[in-house]
Specification:
The chain has eight helices and 16 strands. It is an alpha/beta fold and 243 residues long. The protein has two domains: 114 residues, ATPase, nucleotide binding domain (Nucleotidyltransferase, domain 5, 2-Layer Sandwich), CATH 3.30.420.40; 108 residues, ATPase, nucleotide binding domain (Nucleotidyltransferase, domain 5, 2-Layer Sandwich), CATH 3.30.420. Strands 1, 2, 3, 4, 5 and 9 form a six-stranded mixed sheet that branches. A five-stranded mixed sheet has the order 12-11-10-15-16. Strands 6-7-8 form a three-stranded antiparallel sheet. α1 crosses α2 and α3 crosses α8. The model has no long low-confidence stretch (mean pLDDT 97).
Length: 243
Amino acid sequence: MFGVDIGGTGIKGAPVDLDKGDLAQERYKLATPHPATPEAVVEGVAEVVAHFDFDGPIGITFPGVVVDGVTRTAANVDRHWIGTDARSLLGERLGRPVVVLNDADAAGVAEMTFGAGRGRGGTVIMLTLGTGIGSAVFVDGKLVPNTELGHLELHGHDAETRASVKAREDEELSWEHWAHRLKKYFAHVEMLFSPDLFVVGGGVSRKADKFLPHIHGVRAPIVPAELQNNAGIVGAAMAAAKL
């Protein structure tokens, strides 16, 4: 199967071995166009797919709410995505069946199947830290789709504007200072949902040792994603396998 992960800063994709839950070939990545209009992003996705010799259904993630293939929000891409039938747009351009789903949901499904959430019951929340903050909530292994917990209000701010990787980089925060902000965010999510486990995803999960040890006062264990920044691609391919 094949998965493509559309993010606020990059578009990446690869064939996926769904028996192993890992990429079958090294992923191909390009920068997300700016402005990230539907037309421009679709061309980027087409370039990623064309890089590989693959002919079959494709799963594609999107950084926002997706309902029946229609993108309903667009916090970190161009607002023309709102109300766009992304499934039809991408399917027509690629000339094959596609499925479009929320990026954090895809990453979460992959982690629950092959990674840090495998075999876990109760409430598990995956938070993907990057340009924004994505979320995937699972209750006894079942996904509650399109939760978008990165947009919870935290001390009068949209949480992802304070605690995302982009916020850390833009404000040149130390890992410890950023961890202090994350602690407040995790504590807020925990107060609302009382999860049994937090999984931290996104590319920054590779550097979990730099910030997770500084997060104190959160009851639920917080662990890094095992699939790291490939989780979205794997989850997208898993969705494509159901077409």
